[in-house]
Amino acid sequence: MAPPSKHRRATVHDVAAAAGISRGTVSRVLNGGYVSAEARAAIEAAIAEVGYVPNTAARNLVMRRSQAVGFLALEPHSLLLEDPNIGAIMLGANEVLSVADHQMVNLVVDSARDTERVARYLSGGFVDGAIIVSARTHDPITRVIAELKLPATFVGHPPDLHRSIPFVGIDNVGSARAITERLAATGRRHIGMIAAALDRDSGADRLTGFRAALGARFDPRLVAEVPLYDYASGVKGMRELLEREPGIDGVFAASDAVAAGAMEVLRDAGRGVPSDVGIVGFDDSSWASRTQPALSTVHQPAREIGRNAAELVLRQLRDEGPANVLLPTPIVWRASA
Amino acid sequence: MAPPSKHRRATVHDVAAAAGISRGTVSRVLNGGYVSAEARAAIEAAIAEVGYVPNTAARNLVMRRSQAVGFLALEPHSLLLEDPNIGAIMLGANEVLSVADHQMVNLVVDSARDTERVARYLSGGFVDGAIIVSARTHDPITRVIAELKLPATFVGHPPDLHRSIPFVGIDNVGSARAITERLAATGRRHIGMIAAALDRDSGADRLTGFRAALGARFDPRLVAEVPLYDYASGVKGMRELLEREPGIDGVFAASDAVAAGAMEVLRDAGRGVPSDVGIVGFDDSSWASRTQPALSTVHQPAREIGRNAAELVLRQLRDEGPANVLLPTPIVWRASA
DNA sequence: TTGTATGCGTTATCAG
DNA sequence: CTGATAACGCATACAA
User: Fold this and answer.
1) Are B105 and A105 within 8 A, CB to CB?
2) How far apart are CA B271 and CA B251, in angstroms?
3) Is the CB of B59 under 7 A from strand D?
4) pLDDT digits (tens, 9 = 90+) for B193-247
5) What digits encode the pLDDT tens for the residues A3-56?
6) What is the pLDDT of residues B292-334, one digit of tens each?
7) Under 8 Å between Cβ of B260 and B290
8) Which helix (H) or strand (E) holds A312?
């Protein structure tokens, strides 16, 4: 009996041969099954001898499940790098998937080529389910997942097109409204907003909430639209606001990073925070405690969101009916307003 | 001919049946092969009809390659969330893997349970290779990879134990020495260092370079040791330094994030930067341009590192001999020193 | 308890 | 050009 050729990994077949026992029995000791002590001993020795390591991929083919779920963030990459939220969501999801003995595989989609390849990967049987953050309704990946009926969960706003896929998120409208009202209650007269990512539901919703809070006092001239939830956008937006209304004394930034950028501009302009202008953010990310003064903001329970998202795909894997979940977002009042 | 049962996905077999042609021919139209126009048309119609989507996992089993490579960062998670470098490395790696039509799968290892599961995943045939950032020599995952002879690349310092695995990195010693010398050249008398992550090669090497630059003027009292490359550590380290030597007028922070934390402390303490104390960092991350004044630092070509790491595993996949690569790290002199 | 045979969904080989 | 048939590495129902 010739040894396995140089670059071939040992298989069940090999250990069976080495132990002088059938493959079926080998499989039985690997998983749980009735097998005599002697047979078990012989096989375990053989396993060590030939250096056997099971091929999970082959096992999955017959088992028809991969014990893996994909995690993908459909964001511009700059944000993927900067946003601490998505990292926390990821970790939260991994936590629950891990105890359920599922492998979380993180897929980055950063180009059209990526999109196509990831779609293939998702439909190729490598994952049992998927968690998608920041889905856009017309995203090809979202479409593929829906068509495949792959168990999935959206985090963020529910894309209207795919009612069948549950989501976990927060009430962006309500939260934005609440913190804006809180800001207004400090007696500010000219409250503006740096509205980011209006092409995304979260961004649009936050603006909606802001507008609702101000009611008749809402002044469209006082909202600066910026593309991303990041620091640079905050700088840009605050400059714009200051130029349009030098008397501005309150601002709601669409994210903490945006707020941090805005505060930088205010400091350069010699405005005191919160003495001259009160500012509030959104996310309660690490940015919030890093600013000077510390930022008042909306707490976004990122880790919990991740956990719930994972839980939701596991439910579907167990054929339990999925249910959407909306997590609470307490206001964290610090010193910036 | 009964339709495939409710929750079974259509297979090659099904489309063959639907088209009234053999499976072999179906496979040929899927991949490239000689097949008549009529047969092709019939099969394509059948594919659409039954909603066939290829099972890549099954294909990989017979092909003996997964067209996927794992990417794992063995970092404390706080860092994974904060360090923009690793994100950039990831994106760089994905770039080259993507054009090579390989799927990059990001694995997070965040607990002992994760470690074991990821090791199984890696050895289970799900990936053809792996990129490991911040490997520690005694990490179980590193060991598994070495034993499996899985084509891999380390990014960072080469773990001495596994000479067979190539690495891509930068010259931490040289870079640290260079920027410290540059700082000293501005006439500073009492130069300290906030040394982070000394348990990692990069951290230890930066301290070595710092020491080398100062030579006889090196004063061990002026190095504050902190655990991580993050903002909070910078705060802690700078406080320590200020207490030990109020006359300190220069500091080399082990990373930009650390430098940012340190600058915060200096500002609170009423010290001018760079008038009273000059400060330099490491990484040239987004932190560097965000500080006030902008940070002088060592540019770390994160994206290039990622690209090279990917290239290195692809080389091994093609059976080309691997070669380590050390990337240049230009000094970027801004306003903080 | 153990061995045998069959199937998971593809690709590949080799006659027709 | 096309159709059987044999792998790929593993699990499992069934028979022994």
Assistant:
1) yes
2) 13
3) no
4) 999 999 888 899 999 999 999 999 999 999 999 998 888 899 999 999 999 999 9
5) 333 468 899 999 999 999 999 999 999 988 788 999 999 999 999 999 999 999
6) 899 999 999 999 999 999 999 999 999 998 789 999 999 999 9
7) yes
8) helix A302-317
The widest CA-to-CA distance across chain A, in whole angstroms, is 89
Using the C1' atom of nucleotide C6, identify the protein residue whose alpha carbon is closest.
Answer: A62
B113/A98 touch (CB, cutoff 8 Å), yes or no: yes
What pLDDT is attached to residue A309?
97
pLDDT tens for B166-197 read 999 999 999 999 999 999 999 999 999 999 99
Query: What are the Cα distances from residue A203, in Å, to A70, A227, A228?
Result: 25, 10, 9
Q: Is A115 on the interface with B (CB under 8 A)?
A: no
B222 and B193 Cβ atoms separated by less than 8 Å: yes
Q: Which domains does chain B have, with CATH numbers?
A: 12-54 (no CATH), 65-170+303-328 (3.40.50.2300), 172-298 (3.40.50.2300)
CA–CA gap between residue B249 and residue B189 (Å, rounded): 7
Using the structure, give the distance in angstroms from the CA atom of B128 to the C1' atom of D13, rounded to a whole number.
34
CA distance A126 to B121: 12
Are A69 and A310 within 8 A, CB to CB? yes
Residue A111 one-letter amino acid: S
| Number of C-beta neighbours around residue A53 at 10 A | 18
CB A184 within 8 A of CB A191: yes
- Specify the pTM: 0.90
User: Which tokens go with A44?
Assistant: 């375990």
User: What is the distance in angstroms measured between the alpha-carbon CA of B21 and the sugar C1' of C15?
Assistant: 18
Q: Which of residues 53-82 of B touch A (CB under 8 A)?
A: 53-61, 66, 68, 77, 80-82
Measured CA distances, A93 to A100, A133, A153, A157, B110 (Å): 11, 11, 11, 18, 11
Contact B318, B284 (CB under 8 A): no
Q: How confident is the model at residue A107 (pLDDT cuts 50, 70, 90)?
A: very high
The Cα-based distances of A246 to A222, A240, A249, A253 in angstroms read 11, 10, 9, 17
Asked whether residue A65, judged by its CB, lies under 7 Å from any atom of the DNA or RNA strand D, the reply is no
pLDDT given at position A140: 86
Query: Rounded to 5 degrees, what are φ and ψ at B50?
Result: -85, -5
HSE-CB for B129 with a 13 A CA cutoff: 23
Residue B103, φ and ψ in degrees, nearest 5: -90, 125
Structure tokens at B27: 């496979």
Q: Is the CB of B199 under 7 A from strand D?
A: no
A101 CB neighbours in chain B (<8 A) are: 117
